[in-house]
Fold:
Amino acid sequence: MNNQTILLVEDDKEISEMLQSYLTAENFQVICAYDGQEACRKFDRIPVQLVLLDLMIPKISGIEVMQYIRKTSYVPIMILSAKDSEGDKTLGLGLGADDYITKPFSLVEVLARIKANLRRTTQYDAASSQAPAILTVGELTMNLSDYTVSKGGKPLELTAKEFEILRLFLQNPKKVYTKEQIYSLVWKDAYFDDENAVNVHISRLRNKLEADSRNPRYVQTVWGIGYKLGDAL
Structure:
């Protein structure tokens, strides 16, 4: 019996009821919220394993809800949105979403992506339990137990994807990763020459890590190949 709980944030009652009914039949517990304020209250009160989040919701926007959640949690967040431009997707993923599904959507696809995100979380948790809890390189310290990163003792606020990219480099300091490998390992999805998603996250990660993002020491470019952890640390 599946005891995993999903927070569904959707102001369209018809869509919300359809998703709740379908996912409940698949043995998920579904907690519904119909505006941003209600979503934040329920997230604080009820332990959930995944969030399905519409962006266009009343009172507090979906983006603000996602930013609120990311202050304390790396729970998988899947965006549901009628906006399907590359800019909207890049913004949502860049701010901490793990997946982006455009409306109208297939219930079968939503279920498959929910299971994939939950499976990835389980695998990461299992890997973390076997790996050192603290990773330190130069002034950077990553705590895999509480998902925090600091530089010189000062905390850094990273999105879920930024955290996973940095963890990839810290756990494999000698390896050079292509953009395709980074995308496949962090997004756990097929790579279709979507360089923009990787480039955006690398750029934002550098802005947070580096004293001079134009001359990075921590995340270095290997021209013609990809990226790696800096050598001179």
